[in-house]
């Protein structure tokens, strides 16, 4: 049985099903790299992965759901950052940089993640909540236990806004990472 932390949004997975979902995710990223988000469809991903379209649709309700699921799996599989610094701003920057690095080298995938997470698909909503909780937990762990929850909320908004700006092409993901660091340090000084 697959890891419950990485369970699919729509159903529990056997080992064979988990392999199919993994193949679909890899095919989606490969197709995004070549064709961009506009060229991505669940049917094309299924063909690329050697899976029937009907099978792909049993796991993913839409291309947005598929992309959000791939990002969620990367985030959930990424171990939390070790907090070695005594400086809260450095720890927060480390967390934000670590999360940004999950997509930084794949601009087409990164833009697709932004598009996907802004979607209205109910399956995406479930993933958006999981992703948000995970990021909030990572930020909270980087801060002092008595940190005002408003600070965590502001850091979450900072990260979300950075993703949207990068997804709109206003800056590269490398530029966004540098801007995140400056902004987080300003907020926490």
Automatic annotation (TrEMBL):
Keywords: DNA-binding, Transcription, Transcription regulation
PANTHER family (UniProt xref): HTH-TYPE TRANSCRIPTIONAL REGULATOR BETI (PTHR30055:SF234), HTH-TYPE TRANSCRIPTIONAL REGULATOR RUTR (PTHR30055)
Gene Ontology MF term list: DNA-binding transcription factor activity; transcription cis-regulatory region binding
Any coiled-coil regions, as ranges: none
Residue ranges of the annotated DNA-binding region, renumbered to this chain: 41-60
A family per Pfam: TetR_N
Record-given protein name: TetR family transcriptional regulator
Residue ranges of domain HTH tetR-type in the record: 18-78
